Amino acid sequence: MSEINDELVRDIFTFNVPEISDVQIAERDILSSSLQKSLRRAHYPCALIAAKGLVTDPQYFWRRLVTIAFEDFGVSNLALTAQVVEAARNRAWRMRMGGELRVAAYFIRKLTLTPTDRRIDDLYMLAVATSKSSEVATSFQNASERAKRLVTHAMTLCRTCERAVPMRSFMAVIPAACDEVIWANTNLAPEIAALCVKGRKVSQCLLPVLLPAFLLDASSAEQHCVLKTQTLPDISRAGILPAAIDGYTAEGRAILQVTLRDCRRLSSILARTKGVSAAKAAAAILFCIEGGLLRNQLSDQLSAELNKLGHGCWSGLPLRLIPEALSLMREHLPIIDAHRQEFLTKRANVINSTKPQEQ
């Protein structure tokens, strides 16, 4: 596994950074979402614009990029993941390589050329849902032995290595517990263990700690992996993919509130969630439809099973209501897209109208 070396240095110095359009959307949550959606869909121009807006806060940008590398690319290219982690850890090195945007643009280009692998995130979300819902846990009994083994392991890691943050909706990692779990894997190559520890430190999330489970799984070599490719619409407004306005952004939540107001049936279904607000359930259902739209994806029997088992299970909905909720959300997707494009167009027009005119 190659990290920072002479070849990488040469590649970055000779890399031709394309002209990047001006950033027209200032909201960090939208730029962050656009970066991830663009990388999933291998949309290089939109990913660059998002990076240009985010890299003004280098610490945030590199933490986000490392998280995306583990969440959306998994083990598809460990050497590239290691390079992203090392670059994120060393700002002085980035300055020597030509600055934040040059290094960011280089790695974004490499990631857009790398097939996605979302097994780590699917495993994490399924483990969280299984630990919180007895219904999900019961349905999971029909899973393959391999999936059961991995999810059980992930559930243990969640209990051991994460803690709830008071008054916040996310979990925080427990550094000492995470590192102890990683180094306790005596069958794990030292360089991989070091990568996982570094990835945990930069990303501040549990995903790097889950990575060894796939590398050490004895049956992984038996799986036939294929590359699946989708043709996705190449539509953007103000340099942002409309799908970036999702339920995890402020504007996306506002749009979903309008959707729930207009679709009484969907609203009544989402009101039946357990332990999750209707707004968060709506965000989860929308993500189920759009989050898995990947341009190039590595897929095997395990990834298909994890995705199927976890599809919508973390929305908080009773499992029997998930298919109808997905169907209703799909019906309203054209209206949601229209709201998104209207917002992006208006925002871009306002910004452009306030720019000084060239003489």
Commentary on this structure:
The chain is mainly alpha-helical. It is 63% helix and 4% strand. It is built from 18 helices and 4 strands. The strands form 2 sheets. The protein has a two-stranded antiparallel ribbon with strand order 1-2. The protein has a two-stranded antiparallel sheet with strand order 3-4. Helix 14 crosses helix 18 and helix 16 crosses helix 18. The longest helix has 32 residues. The relative contact order is 0.13. The mean pLDDT is 91.
Layout of helices and strands:
Blueprint: H1 6-14, H2 28-40, H3 44-54, H4 58-73, H5 78-89, H6 91-96, H7 100-112, H8 119-132, H9 134-139, H10 145-161, E1 162-164, E2 171-173, H11 175-183, H12 190-203, H13 207-216, E3 226-229, H14 250-262, H15 264-270, H16 278-290, E4 296-299, H17 301-310, H18 322-353
Antiparallel strand pairs: 1-2, 3-4
Helix pairs in contact: 2-3, 2-4, 3-7, 4-5, 5-12, 8-10, 8-13, 8-17, 10-13, 11-12, 12-13, 14-15, 14-18, 15-18, 16-18
